[in-house]
Amino acid sequence: MNQERARSDILGLLQAVTEDGLHEEIEEAVAKIAKLAGELALEIGVHRAFMQLQWPERGSVVEIGPHFIDCHDGDVARGSEETVDLVVCPRFAVIGDGRSDFRRHRSIHPGGIYPLRS
């Protein structure tokens, strides 16, 4: 089941970066997140598609528009390419058209960044 795989993957990542192991509350929270993500996938119709959170790395370049917003200048920078200084919110996207075409990327919620200013 995808929810169980997602829960297992998230817990594996968290366990890899912690030295003392995970508290039971964290394991319960991850299980709840995986369950809610599965429910959200059904609600928004993700079939043969992937949901993805995207965090651009500091120093990478993103286009301001439907996928990322500039938290400093807002829509003024729309269409411009900006170098990422700080990610405030990840982009939540669906990759795929629900059939077999995984070239389509649709933003459910744009990511928020502060661009690097010189």
| Strand line-up of the largest beta sheet | 2-4-7-3
Number of strands: 7
Q: Which outline best applies?
A: globular
Order of helices and strands: HHEEEEEEE
Fraction of residues in H or I helices: 25-40%
Round the mean pLDDT to the nearest integer and report it.
84
Ends distance: 48 Å
What number of domains? 2
Per DSSP, what share of the residues sits in E-state strands of 2 or more residues?
25-35%
- Unreliable stretches (pLDDT < 50, length at least 5) are none
Cα-atom Rg, whole angstroms?
Answer: 17 Å
Question: Largest sheet at a glance?
Answer: 4 strands, mixed
Helix run count: 2
Structural class by helix and strand composition:
alpha+beta
Can I get a quick summary?
It contains two helices and seven strands. With 118 residues, the chain is of the alpha+beta class. It folds into two domains: 1-44, no CATH class; 47-118, no CATH class.
Helix/strand layout:
Elements: H1 2-17, H2 24-44, E1 50-54, E2 61-63, E3 68-70, E4 81-89, E5 91-95, E6 105-109, E7 111-115
Parallel strand pairs: 3-7
Antiparallel strand pairs: 1-5, 2-4, 4-7, 5-6
Helix pairs in contact: 1-2
Question: How would you characterize the overall build of this protein?
Answer:
- This protein is an alpha+beta fold.
- The chain folds into 2 domains: 1-44, no CATH class; 47-118, no CATH class.
- It contains 2 helices and 7 strands; from the N terminus they run ααβββββββ.
- The chain has helices at 2-17, 24-44; strands spanning 50-54, 61-63, 68-70, 81-89, 91-95, 105-109, 111-115.
- The strands form 2 sheets. A 4-stranded mixed β-sheet has the order 2-4-7-3, with no helix packed on it. Strands 1-5-6 form a 3-stranded antiparallel β-sheet, with no helix packed on it.
- It is globular and about 45 Å long.
- The model has no long low-confidence stretch (mean pLDDT 84).
